[in-house]
């Protein structure tokens, strides 16, 4: 499991499907789901869709990504990369390369506002498992199927990226099964395919921060986009926190809570 510090999910800042099919609709939905990365996955489908095939696809995908990218497993490919020394090329999977490449690009774009190298700092505040020093210098080099570290202390924390990458892969896999209409969710991050079987556009509610009973802040129609929401509050906890799981790398401490929650619609998770 590698998403524990993101376990606000359904309790705070999550996106949830808004409303069942209208009464009188001739088609109904079914939901298939299960555990994923310390949280859950689910897929809302036409009642006649290939539920078993979707479940098998999701179970296999989640297991493969957990083995590759989990910072909570000592035997994961990520843990071995973080323990590795500098200088040698190390073979890595496609998910590691995709997430690491994106992390380095966003680090540059945000001038260090997002930095997936500060896993040890996250762990010091009780929200992660990656140990060691924080390498402010050095870089990751990527080539086909391999990564090289220029500094032995460099570590990679994928928790801000990997769940969205898993969402992209699962949505693409469901589409490849020939399923045209589905709502796909991994721990509060959502992608939609086609339309609701009623038929209408898929509608997703974004929870109002701190509201009791899961009141909606707004309802959106993602269309072909992915929707992700991040908030300071963890699952089941309301009000202001003493310590946030969102870490400000430039300040070296949990981020200020003036901005409580952010939702983003984008081409990918």
Largest sheet: 6 strands, antiparallel
The percent range for strand residues is 15-25%
Q: Average pLDDT, to the nearest integer? A: 85
User: How are the strands of the biggest sheet laid out side by side?
Assistant: 2-3-7-8-11-14
Order of helices and strands: EEEHHEHHEEHEEEEEEEE
Distance between the termini: 19 Å
Catalogue the unreliable spans: 1-14, 17-26, 235-240
The rough form would be described as: globular
> DSSP helix count?
5
Structural class: alpha+beta
- Number of DSSP strands? 14
The radius of gyration is: 19 Å
Amount of helix: 10-25%
Characteristics:
globular, 269 residues, 3-stranded antiparallel beta sheet, alpha+beta, 14 strands
Q: Brief description of this entry?
A:
By secondary structure, the protein is α+β, with helices and mostly antiparallel strands.
Q: Which helices and strands occur, and which strands form pairs?
A:
Layout (H helix, E strand, L loop, with lengths): L14 E3 L11 E8 L2 E8 L4 H19 L7 H7 L5 E3 L2 H16 L9 H6 L15 E4 L2 E4 L12 H15 L5 E5 L2 E5 L10 E4 L8 E5 L5 E6 L15 E2 L4 E2 L6 E6 L3
Antiparallel strand pairs: 1-9, 2-3, 3-7, 4-6, 5-6, 7-8, 8-11, 9-10, 11-14, 12-13
């Amino acid at each position: 499991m590698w998403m524990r510090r993101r376990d606000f999910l359904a309790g705070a800042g999550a996106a949830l499907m808004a409303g069942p099919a209208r009464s009188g609709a001739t088609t109904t939905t079914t939901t298939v789901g299960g555990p994923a990365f310390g949280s859950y996955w689910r897929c809302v489908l036409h009642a006649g869709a290939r539920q078993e095939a979707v479940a098998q696809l999701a179970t296999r995908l989640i297991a493969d990504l957990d083995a590759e990218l989990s910072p909570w497993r000592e035997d994961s490919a990520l843990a071995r990369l973080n323990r590795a020394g500098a200088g040698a090329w190390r073979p890595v999977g496609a998910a590691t390369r995709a997430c690491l490449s994106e992390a380095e690009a966003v680090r540059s774009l945000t001038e260090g506002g997002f930095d997936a190298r500060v896993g040890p700092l996250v762990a010091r505040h009780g929200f992660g498992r990656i140990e060691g020093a924080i390498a402010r210098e050095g870089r990751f080099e990527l080539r086909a199927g391999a990564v090289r570290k220029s500094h032995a202390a460099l570590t990679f924390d994928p928790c801000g990226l990997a769940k969205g990458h898993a969402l992209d892969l699962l949505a693409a896999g469901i589409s490849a099964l020939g399923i045209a209409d589905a709502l796909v969710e991994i721990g509060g991050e959502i992608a939609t395919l086609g339309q609701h079987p009623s038929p209408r556009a898929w509608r997703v509610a974004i929870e109002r921060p701190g509201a009791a009973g899961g009141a909606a802040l707004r309802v959106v129609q993602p269309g072909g986009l992915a929707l992700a929401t991040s908030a300071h509050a963890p699952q089941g906890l309301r009000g202001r926190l003493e310590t946030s799981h969102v870490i400000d790398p430039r300040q070296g401490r949990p981020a200020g809570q003036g901005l409580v929650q952010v939702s983003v619609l984008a081409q990918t998770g």
